[in-house]
Amino acid sequence: MEIFAGIEFFLSDFINPKKRVFVGYLLIAVAIAAAWLMISNRHNCSVALRKIFDRKIFFSRSSIADYKLFILNRVFSFLFAPILVSQIAFSTAIYFMLMGTDWLPQGIFQGVGRIWVVVLFTTTSFVADDFSKYLVHRWMHKWPLLWAIHKVHHSAESLTPITVYRVHPLEGILYTTRGTIAQGLIIPLFLFFFGAGFSIYTVVGANIFNFVFHLTGSNLRHSHVAIRYWPWLERILISPAQHQIHHSVEERHYDKNFGAALSIWDWAFGSLHFSEAGNRLQYGLDAREKMEAGSITSLYIQPIREMLNLVIGYILQIFKLSNWVQQKLKISVWNSIERVEQESLASSSIRKRVTKNE
After folding, report:
1. Are 77 and 126 part of one and the same domain?
2. Which of 72, 98, 202, 347 is the Cys-Cys partner for 192 at CB 3.0 to 4.6 Å?
3. Residue 313 exposure: Cα atoms within 13 Å on the Cβ side
4. Which pLDDT value is given to residue 247?
5. Positions of the chain with pLDDT lower than 50, given as ranges
6. 197 and 330, same domain (yes or no)
7. Does the pTM of the predicted model rise above 0.90?
8. What residues make up the domain containing 111?
9. How many CB atoms lie within 10 A of CB 264?
């Protein structure tokens, strides 16, 4: 029984409809990819399936590292989960903070029809969660300390649906915390203003928007099948081809398409890049970034080493700034003392001359 429990623990994401790699979503992704290749590239079904399940990609050194990270990160998540603040605890704390205010009108929207509250809560939860993913993802590219861990994901030189699990454990903790905060804020706000009785509209247990996102090929984002949308739609939803551009090593693709499901954030903040027809992309890190795509030791240890070096560098800069400020203060104080002494001597000299004349 323990063996089966262990297997279920490692494979639980494949049988959970709330997770992207749920087997049902994977099978639908294969069907979508096959249809795309048969229509756009005029492949027959057999050729399309061979291209989808390309052994060179699924058994590349980079992909094998993905599979290892998937297993190891499951162990880390099991170890770290007990010390992380739960969404329930965070939501409860926020709710009691709201209850303690006397300037917010509790239950002001309690008369709104239940169906409208469900629609609003479902939409707000999805949009808030997606926006928080965009923000954290953008920060991980912009801040060197966070990029040190996020580049583990970008070191992938071939993309498969399992690449979504190619993350450093510290990034996993960061994303778990992000979800706790994003959802943990929405729930108590709705409870406070709308009262109890609301819920998310779900399909097979998943938020309906997440369900549609996964149903329409979210797993193809990390794949070699570049499915593009119409330009107007790529301003709203991130296409698989757009996310593949995000993984490109070409400099013109750097810091583009941070969005998870929605591309409206990229459009609004100037990081949107449309998909490109016929452009074969190379994935991985820039040559200046030294990280072995297939080395588990490098993927786990190097980010920590780089983060420590950055922290030490920041501390040294603070000390240098502190020394510079102290030096400036000393000079300023010394100049002030000299100026006071000079003024005192000048005043004394004037008094002596006045006394002598008298």
Report:
1. yes
2. 98
3. 8
4. 97
5. 333, 350-358
6. no
7. no
8. 2-294
9. 18
Do 6 and 91 sit in the same domain of this protein? yes
Q: What is the pLDDT of residues 72-131, one digit of tens each?
A: 999 888 887 777 778 888 888 998 898 888 888 888 888 888 899 999 999 999 999 999
User: What is the amino acid identity at position 227?
Assistant: I
The rounded distance, in Å, linking the Cα atoms of 31 and 27 is 6
Q: What is the pLDDT of residues 208-232, one digit of tens each?
A: 999 999 999 999 999 999 999 999 9
How high is the pLDDT of residue 332?
58
pLDDT of residue 355: 45
pLDDT confidence of residue 315: 85
Our measurement of the distance from residue 283's CA atom to the centroid of its chain's CA atoms, rounded to an integer in Å, reads: 19
Q: According to the model, what pLDDT value does residue 84 have? A: 75
Total domains in the fold of the chain: 2
- 3-state SS of the chain? CHHHHHHHHHHHHHHCCCCCCCHHHHHHHHHHHHHHHHHHCCCCHHHHHHHHCCHHHHCCHHHHHHHHHHHHHHHHHHHHHHHCCCHHHHHHHHHHHHHCCCCCCCCCCCCCCHHHHHHHHHHHHHHHHHHHHHHHHHHHHHCHHHHHHHHHHHCCCCCCHHHHHCCCHHHHHHHHHHHHHHHHHHHHHHHHHHCCCCCCCEECCEEHHHHHHHHCCHHHHCCCCCCCCCHHHHCCECCHHHHHHHCECCHHHCCCCCCCCECHHHHHHCCCCCCCCCCCCCECCCCCCCCCCCCHHHHHHHHHHHHHHHHHHHHHHHHHHHHHHHHHHHHHHHHHHHHHHHHHHHHHHHHHHHHHHC
Q: Of 294, 312, 335, at which residue does a domain stop?
A: 294
Q: Looking at residue 81, what is its pLDDT? A: 74
What is the spatial distance between Cα 198 and Cα 193, in angstroms, rounded to a whole number?
11
Give the residue from 294, 320, 348 where a domain finishes: 294
357 and 256, same domain (yes or no): no
Residues 100 and 244 reside in one and the same domain: yes
